[in-house]
Design brief:
Length: about 150
């Protein structure tokens, strides 16, 4: 009799995504920045801080969700990373891009510059490198534990 394994990723991703969105929503600095963004008064320096906070928040949500208890064999495999880490990285990149485009657009309008701001493309190579590092570290930790047990 064959046992069927359930796909844990949709539920896992949903938990991580919900955690990320809730952390973003309750952060007072991010909330204040978004109000400034809407009012057209946010600066590029503030956007840089926003990017750092969004990245940190994404990292915290991923670290919170991708724990040994939540993963098969306690490891992050490529298919799990691809379906959990990449969407969070894409969303956080979009959030920062949206903020920067808005700030640059306001600046251009004030200076009567008719050039429309360009959105930065998602850096898939960098995303893949991050996921590779996480997957490899996850798998190496298991190898290190096995070697330590043999000594």
């Amino acid at each position: 009799m064959e046992t069927q394994k359930n796909d844990i990723v949709p539920e896992l991703y949903e938990r991580i995504h919900k955690d990320f969105r809730s952390r973003v929503a309750i952060n007072p600095w991010i909330r204040a920045f978004r109000k400034k963004l809407k009012a057209g008064t946010a600066t590029q320096k503030e956007a840089s801080h926003y990017a750092m906070l969004i990245g940190r928040t994404a990292g915290e949500a991923l670290a919170n969700g991708l724990t040994e208890d939540n993963l098969p064999d306690g490891k992050i495999y490529w298919n799990i990373a691809k379906r959990t880490i990449e969407p969070i990285l894409r969303e956080s990149t979009d959030m920062v891009n949206d903020a920067m485009v808005s700030i640059i657009d306001v600046t251009h309008k004030k200076k009567r510059i008719g050039i429309k701001p360009q959105r930065a493309e998602f850096n898939q190579d960098r995303c893949d490198a991050i996921m590779n590092k996480i997957v490899n570290l996850s798998l190496l930790e298991d190898d290190d534990e096995q070697e330590a047990g043999q000594n």
